[in-house]
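ugh ok fine here u go
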Amino acid sequence: MVCDAAAKLTDEERRKVFDIIESTGWCASLPVYPGAQEAVRELSARADVYIVTTAWHGSPTWCHDRTQWLHDHFGISRQNVIYAWAKHLVQGDIFVDDKPSNVREWCEHFPGGVGFVWNGWLEERNRDMEPLRTQDWGRVIKLV
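structure:
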């Protein structure tokens, strides 16, 4: 995600971006997508919701901040947060991620499931998975 955009930056610009991302508390300052809280509340009423996310290893507080952020904004228990680089190893019925390669790998491992590329701020990068692309929580909720 950030790495794709960082490829277009100079070394100095990239280091400045990474310094910000790796600073204590940055992850906790991330905004919530509009409609996401209501959607997660609705999904949680219908199914077990687990968050599979990747830690930013350069940040000493990323996992703590991310787990707390998920609890504060979505009521997600820390027992329902899974940190994994290999997200495709986490089984489920529906998988939503903003990185097409994660969705592709997950769908290959769990062909009976449904995977969506979330079309958020990385819209251009997601064009290669047009049929599985969404920015519509209603579409995800309807499947559940």
